[in-house]
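User: Please predict structures.

Assistant: First:
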Amino acid sequence: RSALSGFKIPGLPEPIKVTLFADDTTTYIAEGDDFAVLQEILDTWCSAAKAKFNITKTEIIPIGERSYRERMAHTYKSTGQWMNFPQNVRLAGEGDAIRILGGFFGNGIDHLAVWSPRIAKVKAALDRWKLGNATLDGKRHVIQMVVAGMTQYLSDVQRMPTSVVKQLDKIMRDYLWDGKAIPPIAKEHTHLP
């Protein structure tokens, strides 16, 4: 019931203004919305909930046409101000990724860079598993547990670029066949029941 417009999204009956999960809050304010109105709502909520909203952790992702985003980022970074937005918080420029609930969002972000730490983590985990003497069936279980377990959420919220799929395929093949350049069994056969 606030005066904020939020984002109108086709297919949704109401504009989206906020998403909440545990102690994470993401707000969506339109170009014409006043951040001071949002701040008043947050202050009222904090007073009622006996909580404190940590404004210093605020991160802003400009959305809209590139010229608008660049003008906003340039003005904010050079003056420290944009309308009534909070001062001295992080404003994402082109290519800057902001983490929201395990996903990375922003304008023009490098999706491969988002995946690089996860790929390294998967490779390190499989390198540790190489120290054991797992059977082929055991290795299959390890691949399902490690690779699928460490990539499932991010691939759902972020999507997995083809280049990442290829890297993970190579990592899994190296683990499964102990680094042999030519696997003794074709990949298609390893996928059979």
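Second:
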Amino acid sequence: MGITIQNITGNTAMVIWPKMASCVDSFYSIMYHPNWNSMLSSYSKKSFQKEERVPTTRSSFVVENLTPLTTYIMCVTCQSANPSSDQCRVFNTLERDPASVSNTKKELALGIWLTSSVLLLIIAAVLLYGCLHLLCRRRHERLQEQNRTAKQEHEEPWTRRMAYSSEELSRQSQQTRDAEEKHPGGIQLATIIENPSVRNEPVMPSSKSQERASKTGQCSAIN
């Protein structure tokens, strides 16, 4: 039939065949299989791992996604026919193409770079969130401390005045009790003397004192 395999690489191969005048089907069937063993395999279609269908207007086809350093058998027949031995060719693929290796390395490097970038972005976002949360917490604590200090400063004079007033009242009460114990009859006079708020006011004599003074004046006039 004159089937030839050309441009063999590690992953591709081109198969060329002459047009078949006896083929009345609408397309050709291109079948290929790796690691072919003619002793164990027949030439039936079910024995082939891959099959490609090409219109009968074409006479060549590039098979892709082959495995490097592998022996393949490839056959070309009409759509409905099983291949015969003269319609098949055996060939070996080469090592992996340098361009394919380079592309694979580039894809691997790009994948690693993208993964690293995503991880770095996630880590940066977590660190930024932690820093902002810590700053907000410290600022809140600082504001609370300032409010607490201002409240203490506002309450301290009032507390001091209340303590001073209580102490002054206790001292005056104690002085009043001491004066009462020493001079039971002169409580009012002692209170007036000890009370600084009325110390400068004139002491008004009582009604009995006024009576005694008037009688004493009358007696003095008679004498």
